[in-house]
Amino acid sequence: MAKLRSEDWFGRSDQSGFIHRSWMKRGVPDHEFDGRPVIGICNTWSELTPCNAHFREIAESVRIGVYEAGGFPVEFPVTSLGEPIMRPTTMLFRNLASMDVEESLRANPLDGVVLLTGCDKTTPALLMGAASVGLPTIVVPGGPMLNGKYRGTDIGSGTDVWKFTDEFRAGEMSREEYEQAESGMTRSAGHCMTMGTASTMASMAESLGMTLPGAAAIPAPDSRRKVLAHMSGRRIVEMAKEGLDLYKILTRDAFENAIKVNAAIGGSTNFIVHLLAIAGRVGIDLKLEDFDALGSRMPLLVNLMPSGQYLMEDFYYAGGLPAVIRELKDHLHWDALTVNGKQIGENNADAPCYNRDVIFPLDAPLIEEAGIAVLRGNLCPGGSIIKPSAASAELMKVRGRAVVFETIEDYHERVDDPELDVDETCFMVLKNVGPVGYPGMAEVGNMGLPKKMLEKGVRDMVRISDGRMSGTAFGTVVLHVAPEAAVGGCLALVQEGDMIELDVQARRLHLDVSDAELERRRAAWNAPQAHDTRGYVSLYTSHVLQADQGVDFDFLVGKSGSVVKREAH
Question: Distance between CA atoms of 552 and 94, rounded to whole angstroms?
Fold first, then answer.
């Protein structure tokens, strides 16, 4: 059995040991301090995070499993990030939550931790924090909600919001119909049931080997979600005794597996910034080009919104992520270790598929090549990305005139102006919505189309920004332009009427303006005024990295480990 870290707190016979044990003995019997593993249950429960509002029950199932396996469970809260609620964007606070997790783990007598994750940023934030410490760690995702229902059809969170909103703005959907759809979309506990960011992050955790097999897709209300939590509680005790820490699982092979699986499931573009940040915490040299080289030619196997037809509940019934992993056998590192102590290949070698309308076979995929493409050019020397499976094929190689919005406020003020000089061949360009510019790199890159375009029946146009988009969104949207406009990237220099060329096959995004003219514009450019000169926002804008580096803080890259040398008393 591995040496338990908690022994430095509870195994001592001096004054410090007395203090540590006595304050914890409020209803806790002596035998809990007899050398059994102390397991943290890191809970992101909050009524302000609707996706995670059922986590008290999940935490109780984990607690039972820990006790059953002979561990000592201790639940603790960390910052919870509610994607549908928080302003200006939860991405602004992802790094803050990761710091909360990191310092909570390092400062307390924990031998292992179960991370309760659900809503978009809670998964990467908790994994980033845990990765900086390196304890034995297991992830328990909260699960997707049940399929939405509207007039006899399934509707998907996020994806159908954008669709219905366009129809409502175009006059094709009444206010009453719009509100009926709203009331039928969220029918249970759980996160978005499309293959949005939350589902992508749960799948990322499973493909990295950080969950028990099959964890990603079990619907939140399904009783098997509690069984998963119970068994995860049992397993983390074993991991602590075995000394199976996070660094033995989060290897280069695991990250490569995650990139390929993400392409096959049609995962969110947000996957890139989050995986880059996690890799940076564990010291894996992951680059933007890796996502293109490893994932862009992968086939799309999962027929889920926004790239397909079905939803996460259907995905689970069809076999879930294990069925996808089995299909990808020849593309994955089959010997990558997972939290149950087995290789990913051993876990998924016999995984069945029950519905080929939802999970396609590798030799007959839904789309032949569907991973995220990384674009380069003078407009984005640090890179930018596009999700071809969610875009329009006819817009993959086009040249268009820029219609420029300097800020999100400028966009909202002018987008529906009948005098806006725009047609369906134009490129909509949105500046100053990146990590520093928003601040926080908000999900506003999938700009709604001008009303005059919607009324003409246009449903997609090329859109370019230094921001992100919801994983539930769709369209020909170029995102994560780096460097961003707010720090002087070339995007800041784009002017109304400039011509831009997009060629996804050639991986090219080019502003058709001479170098001399760009230099003239740069000399006249002034950085936008700082958003705040105090508090967390000031810290964020002073230290946040760009999109191609994961949008982490520069001082958080790397790991500090779990050792704390100084005593508190």
Answer: 9
Question: Token digits for 87?
Answer: 């302003």
Do the strands 477-482 and 462-465 form a parallel or antiparallel pair, or are they unpaired? parallel
Closest CA to 110 of 24, 211, 37: 37
For the chain, what is the domain count?
3
Residue 323 belongs to domain spanning: 7-147+187-348
The amino acid at residue 279 is A
Q: What does the block give as tokens for 28? A: 């806790």
Tokens linked to 452 = 């005059």
Rounded distance, CA 230 to CA 214, Å? 14
Distance CA 392, CA 389 (A): 8
- Report pLDDT digits (tens) over 2-39: 899 999 999 999 999 999 999 999 889 999 999 999 99
Dig out the tokens for 475 from the structure: 């369209």
pTM for the model:
0.96
Phi, psi of 130 (to 5 degrees): -65, -35
Cα(45)–Cα(411) distance, rounded to whole angstroms?
A: 35
Two structure tokens written together for 259: 């990139």
CA gap 298, 208 in Å, rounded? 17
* Percentage of residues in the chain having pLDDT higher than 70: 100
Residue 43's SS3 state is strand
3-state helix, strand, coil in the chain (%, to 5): 40, 15, 45
133 found inside a domain: yes
Q: How many alpha carbons lie under 13 Å from residue 54 in its C-beta half-sphere?
A: 23
Residues 214 and 179 reside in one and the same domain: no
pLDDT tens for 433-459 read 999 999 999 999 999 999 999 999 999
275 and 180 in a common domain: no
260 and 163 in one domain? Answer: no
d(C-alpha 536, C-alpha 556), whole Å: 15
Of 294, 210, 205, the C-alpha closest to 248 is: 210
The residues that bridge with 113 in the sheet, in sequence order, are 40, 137
